[in-house]
Design a protein that fits this description.
The protein is mainly alpha-helical. Helices cover 15% and strands 0% of the residues.
Length: 71
């Protein structure tokens, strides 16, 4: 499997779309259709997560289970 990682990284870089968000900007994406990430940010930020079930035929459950915290 490790053999394919360089090709995967190259394909991701080749198809990446990068953009800058200004204060107050945001974006919406479908997690099953987009690989997404971010680079560094400065200043304060707020992130909202909205979990919907817009395509019931995909059987993607809405919501998420809070992780168990172990100490």
């Amino acid at each position: 499997m490790k053999h394919w990682l360089p090709q995967l990284a190259e394909a991701i870089d080749r198809h990446a779309i990068r953009f800058t968000l200004e204060p107050g900007d945001g974006y919406v994406l479908h997690n099953h259709r987009w690989l997404h990430g971010r680079t560094a940010f400065t200043g304060d930020r707020v992130m909202y997560r909205l979990s919907l079930d817009p395509h019931p035929e995909f059987a993607i459950r809405s919501g998420f289970i809070a992780p168990t915290v172990t100490r």
